[in-house]
Amino acid sequence: MTGHAKLENDLIAQIAGAADEAALEAVRVSALGKKGSVSELLKGLGAMSPEERKEQGAKINALRDRVSAALEKKKSELKEKAIAGKLASEAADVTLPVRAAPAETGRIHPISQVVEELTAIFADMGFSVADGPDVETDFYNFTALNFPAGHPAREMHDTFFFPPDANGERKLLRTHTSPVQIRSMQKQKPPIKIIIPGRTYRSDSDQTHTPMFHQVEGLVIDKKSHLGHLKWILAEFCKAFFEVDDVKMRFRPSFFPFTEPSMEVDIQCDRSGGDIKFGQGNDWLEILGCGMVHPNVLRNCGLDPDEYQGFAWGMGIDRIAMLKYGMPDLRPFFEADVRWIEHYGFRPLDFPTLAGGLST
Fold this sequence. Notes:
Layout: H1 3-17, H2 21-32, H3 37-43, H4 50-89, H5 102-105, H6 110-124, E1 128-129, E2 135-136, H7 138-141, H8 152-156, E3 172-173, H9 179-187, E4 192-201, E5 212-222, H10 227-241, E6 249-256, E7 259-270, E8 277-278, E9 283-293, H11 295-300, E10 309-316, H12 317-325, H13 338-344
Parallel strand pairs: 1-4
Antiparallel strand pairs: 2-3, 4-5, 5-10, 6-7, 7-8, 7-9, 9-10
């Protein structure tokens, strides 16, 4: 085998064995570079006679052309292989179902949904939404609401107290949203027409009670409000919230330190069949407490009870959510179980409106 043939075989073997474009480039430089093996052969032509130069030049150029062609062919093969590998690694199975958009998979918690429903109903009646701090003072949570010092009702609330501060005052987690009524009456002059949804806290836990729960209270203060107005507001709320055409209500005497007279409200329902249906049947279900604002509460807020009067009511948001949507246990509301929220949750963009429906 001549030297040219052996060199060509060696180069073709190196080209065939190149695993990637970098290795192939190294073979090209070693063969056709300035100091490559083929280039060195061309440099030797100058020392030959004209006849030898013509003969050997033709052979060397033919060798260079064949090596160049082998390099280009191998380079094309490596590029195709790289593209095929990239396509394989980035392949998408178009037969798989498309993932649902976040707006389709996300869910609104029932408590958030019910708060939006309450807001829509009472906003239609002209109420605004008020808010206040979760950490309260004894004055706003008890004293201003006509709870005398040592009153047993203070103990009934199972209050979460903080350690005393430097002044000996003990802050607490509010046991109801009623302190916002006091703050609202102190900040603005009547007429006042507000609802107060928010978190409240009591040391209690079972199937129908949790240490943190949600309440909504309503307050109307003016010069002419009376129990007839209160009854109409509550009846219209129940019809709108439970989405029934008519509802019968029963007012029973009760006691709350901050209202006088005080009442608890039952609404007509049907408990047969395992579900509670409102607006029909012969059963009754308690849903809220209410009454006329006590004159002492008005005085504590700087209002003259001989000039102003009003009424208030309060109910548990968690409880009415359970009643409306058939949830048997309160505790899963706070357990962050994805399966539960997928079952009872609401689609994010289905905003409740009176015109379009609250719970559709």
